[in-house]
Amino acid sequence: MAILFLKVFMQRFLDGEDLAGCESIRNPVPAVGRMIALTSLSLEHLAASFIIDASHFFAIDPSWEWPNLTSLVLTCRLLKLEDDSTKIDALLQAAAAAALKMPRLETMEIWNGRKGLAALFQYRMIRGSRQARILWRGTWKHPIRPSVLQAWEAVGNLHAIWRLDVVQEQVDKAAIQSHGDALHHLMLSGQAIRSVSLQQIQREQKFLEGVEVVS
Predict the structure, then answer these.
(1) How many alpha carbons fall within 13 Å on the CB side of residue 142?
(2) CA nearest neighbour of 180 among 169, 168, 193
(3) Which of 69, 126, 172, 200 is the most exposed place for a label (fewest CB within 10 A)?
């Protein structure tokens, strides 16, 4: 799983490597995002965090389809308070356009996290009903505008959804000290990262901060 990047960075620090000139967050390459999108066409689940950007993944060929994909988890650097909100809206509309190519999709999550910032957009079908939910959970509120809602209503129509709810939830900015904290407070689905890996990331972050961790 692409969350591995976080683990590699932490391990290099703990091994004593000089990371002064190393970016704490990788700059995703568009070609890699396109390659992973192409190779994921036959998958049922895909979770890729930080190694690619959702904006690159959704810049797809119109002929591409994901007939088996049920869950998709991606990160996107556009999900930040200081960015132009219209860029976020464009991303969410592009995500909906891609979701129209995913007839079995049950959950899509796009998130971002770093110290002081956490954001999650989630589309989730509610099992056993003809209902779905759009959720924005983050350290700030981002309104789901009519153009975005209309795009996701089209996805709901594809899945024979009768009702699409929109939910806003706020996360305490002070509680987000690392990517691991963001993952914890955003409460992503289990496909994003195993609980054991999340706990290890949080423990390593506390170690770097000089905080004693009690098992």
Answers:
(1) 29
(2) 193
(3) 172
> For the CA atoms of the chain, what is the radius of gyration?
17
Give the residue from 105, 133, 106 showing the smallest Cα distance to 120. 133
pTM for the whole thing?
0.80
> What tokens does 33 get?
């995002």
| Residue among 210, 194, 187 at smallest CA distance from 7 | 194
Amino acid (one-letter) located at 137: R
And the tokens for 89? 């809206």
The residue type of 48 is A
- Using CB atoms within 10 Å of the CB of residue 84, give its burial: 0 to 12 exposed, 13 to 18 middle, 19+ buried: exposed
Which segments of 154-209 are extended strands (E)?
163-170
Instruction: Give the pLDDT of the chain (215 residues) as one tens digit per residue.
Output: 333 343 433 344 344 444 344 444 567 889 999 999 999 999 999 998 888 999 999 998 889 999 999 999 999 999 998 767 899 999 999 999 999 999 999 999 999 998 999 999 999 998 778 899 999 999 999 999 999 999 999 999 988 888 999 999 999 999 998 878 888 899 988 655 554 344 555 555 554 455 443 33
